[in-house]
Write a structure and sequence with these properties.
Layout lengths: L2 H19 L14 E5 L3 E3 L12 E4 L5 E3 L4 E4 L3 E9 L2 E10 L11 E5 L6 E2 L12 E4 L5 E3 L4 E4 L3 E9 L2 E10 L9
């Protein structure tokens, strides 16, 4: 019983060394520049074969094209949230890369970060979100509605002198604009 493990190891080494000495053409081994990548929906990442291979006829495939697609040049595109495996193949040799696709991180930016308005409702101004928020809608708020209010479209109406923070929030990401309301200009009327 104690000789059996030694015999198995010896046979394995013997067969393995005989196989290499036979001079059989083993499939060339290929490697990719990355074994795991993480990208967001709509983003791309290029994979490349980094092994020395004589045949540059590389084919690319994804096991889940609905999550990550790959073109004939190894450019992987995030399609939907999930995990896919991209395979590159040259002849019989192949290499894989695990691709993790996540939601695109939302960046939120307003057209103004600071705004000064006169304290008359007719001096209203509309803030705009200049980031791509897709189909999402923003929730607008004023930190002090006695100074200025804001509607669902980002229109600010100044009411009294002071300072307030107007915020737009989309999917828990917030951008702000500091609004300062000052005394309006005095118009002199001649009688």
């Amino acid at each position: 019983k104690q000789c059996l493990p030694s015999l198995v190891v010896a046979l394995t080494l013997l067969l393995g060394s005989c196989h290499e000495e036979d001079g059989e053409n083993l499939a060339p081994e290929i490697k990719l520049n990355k074994s795991v990548i993480g990208i967001s929906i709509g983003e791309t990442e290029t994979l490349a074969v980094v092994s020395n291979i004589e045949n540059d006829d590389i084919t690319w495939s994804s096991n889940k094209n609905g999550i990550a697609s790959v073109d004939s040049k190894g450019v992987v595109t995030g399609v939907s949230v999930g995990t896919a495996v991209v395979t590159s193949k040259v002849g019989e040799a192949k290499a894989i890369c695990t691709v993790v696709i996540s939601e695109k991180e939302l960046e939120l930016e307003l057209n103004k970060q600071n705004l000064t308005l006169f304290s008359f409702p007719t001096y209203k101004e509309t803030l705009q979100i200049i980031s791509d928020i897709g189909e999402n809608t923003a929730v607008w708020e004023s930190s002090d509605e006695t100074i200025a209010t804001v509607d669902d479209n980002g229109e600010i109406i100044p009411l009294s002198v002071g300072e307030t923070v107007i915020s737009a929030t989309v999917n828990e990401v917030t951008a702000i604009c500091i609004v300062t309301v000052i005394e309006g200009p005095v118009t002199v009327l001649e009688l």
